[in-house]
Amino acid sequence: MFPLPTIYLASQSPRRRELLDQIGVPYTVLSLREDSSRGGDVDERALPGEAPVAYVQRVARLKASVAWAILLARKLERRPVLAADTTVCIGDRILGKPTDAADAIAMLHHLSGREHRVLTCVAVRLGDHRHAALSESTVRFRALEEEEIERYVQTGEPMDKAGAYAIQGRAQAFIPSIVGSYSGVMGLPLCETMELLKRITNDSRDTAAR
Questions:
Q1: Which residues are designated catalytic?
Q2: For residues 103, 31, 130 and 207, what is the CA-based torsion angle, rounded to 10 degrees?
Q3: Along the 210 residues of the chain, how does pLDDT read in single tens digits?
Q4: What is the pTM of this model?
Q5: 143 class by beta-carbon count within 10 Å (0-12 exposed, 13-18 middle, 19+ buried)
Q6: What distance in Å separates the CA atoms of residue 8 and residue 124, rounded to the nearest whole number?
Q7: What's the longest Cα–Cα distance across the chain?
Q8: CA–CA dist 7, 165 (Å, integer)
């Protein structure tokens, strides 16, 4: 395994922590505020007319830059910062995190019986070195009945998930097929993540050798 330094994970997501644990990447969580009522550190709203790919790439890079600024402000040890953003989309329509149960129900109705894309961008930063990679997967939902949609929403699982579902949770029962990265749909594509961490580590070594 490629030797990696301890990184900062700029995410509160337990799924992303679990995925980093799976591939043995040491990390410290560097939390960004997400509660808009308190003034989130990153504005995750899409810009008018912004395409899903441009949106997810912009937000992931912004999260990494904001996290780097927080690291400097707190005078923390300088290590690579890793951030990610995931969105679900049908065509150019972005399905973010549901605002309430009714919104979650509406999203699941929209996904029922059709394919959608899941885009996850991973961004890393160490000083002036910045890299990003995009993972794109296609997920198919079977046709869902009204009652099972309502039961699923009542579990609370959809409420903090893009597209109102978690592929690693109960929503697995809705998905007959996926083309792409399972870990990317969860929120952190592991192949792309490892490649980015290798690049940022090599950048650091090259800079130190100069």
A1: 85
A2: -170
A3: 556 779 999 999 999 999 999 999 999 999 876 544 444 688 889 999 999 999 999 999 999 999 999 999 999 999 999 999 999 999 999 999 999 999 999 999 999 999 999 999 999 999 999 999 999 999 999 999 999 999 999 999 999 999 999 999 999 999 999 999 999 999 999 999 999 999 998 887 766 555
A4: 0.91
A5: exposed
A6: 10
A7: 63
A8: 28
Sole residue written with tokens 């995009």: 134
